[in-house]
Amino acid sequence: MRLAFSLLALAPLALARLPDGRLHGNRPPRPLPPSVLAPDSTQVVHASTNATLPPLDTIYYFDQLIDHRNPSLGTFKQRYWSTWEFYEPGGPIVLSTPGEANAAPYTGYLTNRTINGQIAQQQKGATIVLEHRYFGLSNPFSDLSVASLKYHTVQQAIDDLAYFADNVKLPMPGGDQVPPSKAPWILIGGSYSGALTAFTKINKPDSFYIGYASSAVVESITNFWAYFEPVRQYMPKNCSSDVEAVVAHFDRVLTSGNNTAIAELKHLYGMDDVVHADDVSGALRNNLWNWQDLDADSGGSVFYDFCDAIEVKDGVSAPASGWGLEHALTAWGTYWTSTYMQTLCGGDGAEDCLGTYNTTQSFWTDTSLDNPERSWMWLVCNEFGFFQDTAPPYQPSIVSRIVTISGDERQCQQMFPEAFKGPANPKAWKTNAEYDGWFLRANRLFIANGVRDPWRYATVSSGFVDIPSTPQQPIAVGDGFHCSDLITRNGAVDPTILKVQQSSLSHIKKWLAEWKPAGSGHYYGRGNEL
Ligand SMILES: *[C@@H]1O[C@H](CO)[C@@H](O)[C@H](O)[C@H]1NC(C)=O
Ligand SMILES: *[C@@H]1O[C@H](CO)[C@@H](O)[C@H](O)[C@H]1NC(C)=O
Ligand SMILES: *[C@@H]1O[C@H](CO)[C@@H](O)[C@H](O)[C@H]1NC(C)=O
Ligand SMILES: *[C@@H]1O[C@H](CO)[C@@H](O)[C@H](O)[C@H]1NC(C)=O
Ligand SMILES: *[C@@H]1O[C@H](CO)[C@@H](O)[C@H](O)[C@H]1NC(C)=O
Q: Distances in Å between the alpha carbon of 191 and those of 150, 301, 350?
């Protein structure tokens, strides 16, 4: 029943290294929730007064405008979580949204288990987690039909952040006296919400004094084959060699016209009933998508289990060239049918689980709320693209050559037939024109990236354009994966990530020392002081 584009029900980071399940489609770029070392339902004690504060999982509601261009349409309830554990009057307000997810599992972003809380602790600030519109239980309308999705745009999400900062009455002493004119606000995001942070600095320069954008996917790219490039480059060499060989074999057989050979190959991978050739070879991407779950501390990860299954034979590891097609094809097939398929599909049949053409399945038709796959796909199909398919012919590929963006464009149409009369054509160029993409420049925007991040080519650290690191827009790159720097613990595991975190803390300290409230003659917003 779950098809391409569906994604993992949110799991705390601690669970992210266990078998994931249900990671069938293009991966959304988003940070993982920090591990729940202490239940967020326990009481919080104020750092200096020892006063007892509400538990972190206390839900607050903000009256958000449905349409920022037409406030007369009214408001909807937008959920948020907040704590003033470290807050002292005059401290900053640290806001983040997890982006394309139900935000309830993200209350760890209120604590010093994340960079957000470290900043709050260092600067005596308050922290807030705000649920993104059209995700979780923060919805303008009662369903996710195409008509209801009308106000689900990047610009409305940016406007939400600014309007929230201007109007919220935070549930803390003096919480109605901290709009951006009176208190310094810091916007933090990772992945899509990292891009949103950068976009907000560009689009609403007066709202947030400081931005912190981690693994921010600022450049929208429809044909985002480069997603798999960091994977290919940084995965064990023997594993990439063998994956390339197996995938090329799938392509040869699936396009051979030899139905006996095709049936044999599908059978070897338990995909006998999968109808379409691109669904068969496209399914193999699932093992590669597991790379996005890696973290600095990657022991016992699903991704490495996969490589071990192919590369370790009788206790011996293959050389860099791999074992070659014959062994790799059967070893991957055995791992797939004995272990992986169950994790991925549960009890569902292969076609039900991996097929992408059957539009009567609920995946395509279900418009009920709190369905992040659908809400994310709306943004993907309209504004981002980010389709994760085969590399161009001149480039080695760990993804089947018959898996192309036409499949994603078709799926957009299948999910939103009222919106797309034909295959969708996401307006990535427009998003880049609005918010400057790779070329973005803002003041007091800290940018953090990881070289092993599969999303790196959509960030300013792509290497495609030369964006300098400056005192106003520092770019710190560690050896991390996706949004690794947001999680405090990763700094303890990897010194390069610790360096990124420490650099952000010192920049933020310096910038906050220069902050003055509006009307005090200080000019803190617009313009490039770079
Ligand atoms: C808060 O608790 C700590 C540890 O129990 C104690 O050392 C400190 O004096 C307390 N502070 C106040 C203001 O009560
Ligand atoms: C993080 O905050 C907790 C209180 O929530 C505190 O006990 C702990 O010492 C802090 N960690 C560090 C490294 O300061
Ligand atoms: C070969 O594969 C093993 C098991 O996955 C891995 O530990 C090792 O680093 C790989 N070696 C090379 C040269 O790629
Ligand atoms: C088709 O594939 C089968 C199984 O691999 C093989 O035995 C047979 O020779 C192939 N037929 C042709 C015409 O290549
Ligand atoms: C398509 O999906 C529906 C709903 O899950 C199912 O009943 C039907 O058998 C599927 N059709 C095919 C051809 O697999």
A: 23, 21, 31
